């Protein structure tokens, strides 16, 4: 807990109001909710495994242990959120999203693609709390969901140079591909939301808002996650495009190598499937990323 308060919490944002939430407000809530305390200890241990590589295995084991304990209770309470417990549930949801990105994707029990599927599923868990967002926004946790961007559609993407062209090609290919209508609709929605989130990151007031990388996993439809699990070529390419968002925030330790490891697995597993199905233009999009 000491390491979390003096070190880990300061690495999660450059904005002081957000740091205050991580450093002070979330630990306060955790004193009344044991599962949230386990979440804090888990993230702290994971950070220690990063800053003390000589004890990496020890701290990673500790981190996994605390997260397993926290998740067990969290999932039970999440079934019946209330105005009283929604703050602890939201805080833990925020912790788990950071944690799942920071867990080493090359550990023996984790693969980048399965890890990102878990991340998408865990991120979507926060939608259970949507009805409480107005309440959370007015609380001490408000800075975590404060909007840090302006809505500007159709402007060039400097941080994602060339992505506009690739998305246009994907849209064309998707239009002519023989697909079930539901599958096409899910993919079109994912493309549109990916564009929106890239624009939001592009126009964010500060690139310290690394939490913006979790928006797309939250807003895509459940069917899109199923398509990733099935290694559907278009879904894999969109996931590869999402790696550009992870890359933008690579200076944060929780995201430092996430884009590289995920893209490597998509390339290794996805290109084989894409070649087998004859989607050459889709392969070109992965090459671009």
Automatic annotation (TrEMBL):
UniProt-listed InterPro entries: Fun_TF, Sterol_Uptake_Regulator
Coiled-coil ranges from the UniProt annotation: none
Domain of life: Eukaryota
GO molecular function: DNA-binding transcription activator activity, RNA polymerase II-specific
Protein name: Fungal-specific transcription factor domain-containing protein
């Amino acid at each position: 807990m000491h390491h979390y308060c003096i070190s880990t919490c300061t690495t999660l944002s450059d904005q002081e109001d957000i740091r205050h939430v991580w450093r002070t407000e979330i630990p306060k809530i955790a004193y009344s909710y044991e599962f949230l305390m386990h979440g804090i200890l888990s993230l702290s241990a994971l950070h220690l495994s990063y800053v003390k590589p000589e004890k990496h295995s020890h701290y990673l084991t500790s981190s996994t242990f605390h997260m397993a304990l926290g998740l067990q209770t969290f999932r039970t309470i999440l079934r019946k959120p209330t105005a009283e417990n929604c703050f602890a549930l939201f805080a833990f949801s925020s912790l788990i999203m950071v944690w799942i990105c920071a867990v080493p994707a090359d550990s023996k029990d984790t693969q980048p693609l399965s890890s990102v599927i878990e991340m998408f599923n865990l991120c979507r868990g926060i939608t259970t709390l949507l009805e409480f967002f107005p309440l959370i926004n007015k609380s001490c946790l408000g800075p975590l969901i404060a909007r840090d961007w302006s809505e500007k559609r159709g402007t060039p993407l400097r941080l994602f140079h060339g992505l506009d062209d690739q998305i246009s090609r994907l849209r064309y290919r998707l239009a002519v591909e023989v697909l079930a209508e539901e599958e096409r609709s899910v993919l079109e929605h994912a493309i549109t939301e990916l564009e929106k989130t890239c624009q939001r990151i592009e126009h964010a007031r500060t690139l310290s808002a690394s939490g913006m990388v979790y928006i797309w996993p939250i807003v895509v439809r459940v069917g899109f996650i199923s398509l990733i699990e099935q290694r559907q070529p278009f879904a894999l390419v969109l996931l590869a495009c999402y790696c550009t968002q992870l890359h933008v925030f690579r200076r944060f330790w929780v995201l430092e190598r996430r884009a590289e490891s995920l893209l490597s697995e998509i390339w290794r597993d996805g290109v084989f499937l894409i070649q087998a199905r004859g989607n050459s233009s889709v392969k070109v999009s992965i090459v671009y990323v």
